[in-house]
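Researcher: I'd like a candidate sequence for this fold, 210 residues long. If you have to choose between options at a position, lean toward the conservative one.
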C-alpha cells in the first residue's frame, strides 16, 4: 500500500524568510508548544529516510475521511478532501492546456506531537503516472489566495498541534487532458515514505467562475 516523493525544503526556507506572514517556524517538531514569534521552516533531519525505502499507501476518495495510524511511532491523523473546485476561466487559457484546481481539505492531528504541514513539502500530484510536486504554480497559488481571502481557508504552511483540526486548501495546476489524477499527501515526509493518495475523478470536480 504506501510511496514517497521529493521535497522542496530549500523553497520552503526561502518562502519563510521572505514572508512575514509565515507563522511558527521552528526546527523542533517534537515539541507540542507552537512558537508565535518565529518563522516556520519544515525541519529536514540529517538522518532523513532514504527515497529507496518503499512506503505504504492509503487509498482515499473525495468526500470520505482517510485514517493514518502508525502505532509504532505513535503517528495518527485523519485527513479529508472535502471538495475540489476547478477555476474555469483559466482552463486551456494558453498552449499549456492546463486547469487550476482548488482542493479543500480538513485534517485532525490525533497524535500526541506536533505535525508539520506545508503545501510546498507534503503534497504532490500523480497525473497518469507522472509525479509532480505541488506548490510551484504561481498562478494557482495566487488565485487560491484571492478566492479564499477572508474565508478561513488558506494555502497551508504551518505546524498542527496535537489534537488540533485545521481546514486549508491546496492549489493545483494540472493538465486538463488526462486519464487519472491523484493528490498525494505524505504526512511524515523525511521520516516516512507512507502516503495517503486521493483519487480525484471528473465527477468530484465542481466548476466555478472564480
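Model: Candidate sequence:
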Amino acid at each position: 500500500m504506501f510511496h514517497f516523493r521529493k521535497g522542496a525544503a530549500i523553497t520552503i526556507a526561502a518562502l519563510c524568510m521572505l514572508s512575514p506572514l509565515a507563522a511558527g517556524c521552528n526546527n523542533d517538531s517534537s515539541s507540542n508548544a507552537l512558537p508565535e514569534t518565529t518563522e516556520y521552516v519544515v525541519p529536514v533531519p540529517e538522518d532523513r529516510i532514504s527515497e529507496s525505502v518503499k512506503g505504504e499507501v492509503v487509498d482515499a476518495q473525495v468526500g470520505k475521511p482517510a485514517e493514518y495510524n502508525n502505532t509504532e511511532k505513535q503517528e495518527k491523523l485523519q485527513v479529508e478532501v472535502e471538495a475540489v473546485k476547478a477555476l474555469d476561466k483559466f482552463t486551456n487559457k494558453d498552449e499549456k492546456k492546463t486547469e487550476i484546481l482548488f482542493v479543500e481539505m480538513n485534517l485532525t492531528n490525533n497524535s500526541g506531537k506536533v505535525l508539520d504541514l506545508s503545501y510546498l513539502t507534503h503534497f504532490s500530484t500523480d497525473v497518469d503516472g507522472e509525479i509532480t510536486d505541488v506548490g510551484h504554480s504561481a498562478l494557482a497559488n495566487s488565485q487560491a489566495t484571492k478566492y479564499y481571502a477572508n474565508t478561513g481557508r488558506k494555502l497551508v504552511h504551518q505546524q498542527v498541534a496535537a489534537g488540533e483540526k485545521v481546514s486549508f486548501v491546496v492549489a493545483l495546476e494540472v493538465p486538463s487532458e488526462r486519464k487519472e489524477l491523484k493528490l498525494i499527501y505524505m504526512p511524515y515526509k523525511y521520516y516516512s515514505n507512507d502516503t495517503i493518495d486521493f483519487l480525484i475523478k471528473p465527477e468530484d470536480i465542481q466548476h466555478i467562475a472564480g
